[in-house]
Amino acid sequence: MLVISFVIGYLIILICVLVSVAFLTLLERKILGYIQVRKGPNKVGMVGMLQPFSDAIKLFSKEQSLPYLSNFLMYFFSPVFSLGLALCFWMIFPIFFNLIDFELGLLFFLCVSSLSVYTLMGAGWSSNSKYAMLGAYRAVAQTISYEVSLALIMLSCVVMVESYDLVKLSNYQDCWWLVWGFFPLFLVWFSSCLAETNRSPFDFAEGESELVSGFNVEYSSGGFALIFMAEYANIMFVSLISVFLFFGGMIEMLVISIVILSMLFLWVRGTFPRFRYDKLMGLAWKIYLPLALNYLLFSFSVCYGFFVVCM
User: Fold this and answer.
1) What residue ranges do the domains of the chain occupy?
2) pLDDT in tens, 236-252
3) pTM, whole model, 2 decimals?
4) What is the distance, to the nearest Å, from the Cα of residue 42 to the centroid of all Cα atoms in its chain?
């Protein structure tokens, strides 16, 4: 019975996530349209509400091209694996359906997010294209640079709460959100999340000006659509994790909080130009890493001080 309830609950969450991904793409196109003083999609359905489904039908019905010298199995399965990992994140979603109770949910998030870089590398390598391979190289180097500080930022919050469980993180922040004490850390976390999801201004794996379209340049039809869906599912899940880490995981306003943080991702894309690649490397190693280490020491000292006072 538990297995059946888990499967049904997980399927409901996956359906909700996939529908949300569809409308997040519409929201992005609308926001970018208004930022650029135009309307965005408004023809298909009422005020363009059916545009995501029209795009999905168009993408999945187009002819699938296959590069002649590509590694077929890796080329075919990399987008599927990418979307699968993006949906695996939602297994630790602790609300409503009583899914698997992850006491180590944040560690699971770090493990799965570390695996996601292999999908970019596999897609770039298996395409047997110089441009796709360059995009894959840049994605791997980018991931190594910021994931260290990303893990340390998360560890600073974990030290304060003394748990990796999202529910305990939420309960700890009933009276006081961690963002008030860790606001500089939240800014570093948010910019690292932009790099984690390959979003502007850190979308170096997809630099159109120098890499044509980056690691996915050889993909069309369904393969491109799966990579696209995985990116937007990651944006929503990173927004969810950010709400639980810094804003208390407010159950009553969880959906609104995720939408607001996702809109920040879209606003940044419409506002800032692409960062220079070597600048990101310096930013991650020379600024983000020392700041994350200092806040980690601060968290340890605060917890130790409380322990001494209680003793």
Assistant:
1) 65-310
2) 999 989 998 888 767 77
3) 0.89
4) 28
